[in-house]
Amino acid sequence: MLGINYLKFDPMNYVVHYRNGKVVKEGKGLSFFYITQNSTIVSIPLNSQDIPFIFKVMTSDFQTVNVQGQITFSIQDPMKINDLLDFSVNNKKYYLTDDIDKLSQRILNEAQTIVGSFIHNYSVTNSLSLYSELDESLLTNLKKSGIIESLGLDIISVNVLKISADPEMQRALEARTREALQKDADKAIYDRRNFAVEQERKIKESELNTEIAVEEKQKQIVEKKMETDLTKQENTSKLKRLELDSNLELESKNRELVKLKSENIKEEADARGYQIEQEVKPYREMDWRVIEALNFDSESNSPKNQIALAFRELASNQTKINQLNITPDLLQNLIEG
Questions:
Q1: CB atoms < 10 A from the CB of 71, how many?
Q2: Alpha carbon distance, N-terminus to C-terminus of the chain
Q3: Which domains does the chain have, with CATH numbers?
């Protein structure tokens, strides 16, 4: 009625009321009456906004990859953006222009330029795993961008959700990856078998070393036993030599003793012979008859002795006897008589 309207905005909108091209009031969450014919109402949203994106960019090996993500931003300086874009609304708070969409497009254009520059430094294979690096690069470069700063925007966060190649390239990469994985699996099997062979070799080598050590110990034992036996033999030989030397010395002493005994016996015999010789010497020149007479006693005067003397006398005069008959009976009678 009469072109007078009432508007009320929430606190997340920065409102500028123009009347006849001049600012009447501005601020957050305003509510007021205005005349439609001479007023312009600008509503700048201050809440954070999310912009999803999908970019097709070229890698260093001239392959196309798709980068998908989301940018979250907010308007920090509403008067800066108010000088560049038109956020005027009607009495129902609908925007009269599409500048709100232009804002998002300008951010996306800047983001695509940054993403393309970043991905172009990497091959398709390497670029598919650069999530965190691309996040950091995109956030840093958007914050430093002159366009973003001129619009009075604050980039809150950047999230790269997916980096993928074209379907054909994806299949090729999957095939290459499968081949690489198969090679890795084959290499793992080879390494495992090689490791098993190496371990078996080490075990065999250890067993051989153990056998060599045992043989060496046995050799040392044999050598030690031979040394012990040799020492025993040497000691036995020494003992035998000592025993022989002792026996030889004993035999030598015995020989000297026997010799001394023989000499003593000989001297004793010589002494007795000399004694007997001296005792017999007087009788040697005497007639046996005299000697017989000197030894005369009752026993020597017996018939037997007398007959014996008679026969002796006859024997000494045998050259003078022509014939002598002595019968057993005569001898028996002479002996018994």
A1: 22
A2: 223
A3: 1-47 (no CATH), 48-77+93-165 (3.30.479.30), 288-336 (no CATH)
Contacting residues for 157 by C-beta, under 8 A, at least 6 apart? 71, 72, 139
Among 48, 21, 43, which residue's Cα sits nearest to residue 32? 43
Q: pTM of whole model > 0.70?
A: no
Asked whether the beta carbons of 227 and 234 are under 8 A apart, the reply is no
Amino acid at 64: T
Segment 18-58, tens digit of pLDDT: 999 899 999 998 999 988 888 999 999 999 999 999 999 99
